[in-house]
Fold:
Amino acid sequence: MRKRLLAVVAVGLFLSLSIAAGGSESAEKAVNRVLDSLHEAASDANGELYFGLFDEDAVFMGTDATERWSMDEFRAFAEPHFSQGRGWTYTVTERHVYVAVSGATAWFDEVLRNDHYGTCRGTGVLLLTDEGWRIAQYNLTIPIPNDLAGEFTARIREFEDAAR
Structure:
């Protein structure tokens, strides 16, 4: 419990300092830092830091169509892996960040590389809160090249029909 509290305080302090820097760090840079921290925490199996970067009402959508998780559900999935020191590593190869004129909402898309899944795409939304930028939605997908889409969608349909 104490470790969790310290991790939450550390995340809050980190993000508060990012906001307080104001003029020295643009909102886009602050969002990039949050997303970089997310991927680093996942790779390090650091559940406290990882989940501290999400808004409490956030949703994580995984690569499977059934994977639409609240933070409680996603934490229940991830914690057994993290507690054994097993995280997941996605390396960013390209990222685009956009900040609303209001400065309170940002969205992004990023191309990722993973040893197991290959090329992936992450998209999502962040909200500027009193504690700093928090991820409100993250969507991880495996983009299918158009030339292969027909074959894969047929296989997915067969899989879904067999599961019914």
Residues 2-163 form a domain with the Nuclear Transport Factor 2; Chain: A, fold (CATH 3.10.450.50). The mean pLDDT is 89. The CA atoms of residues 144 and 151 lie 10 Å apart.
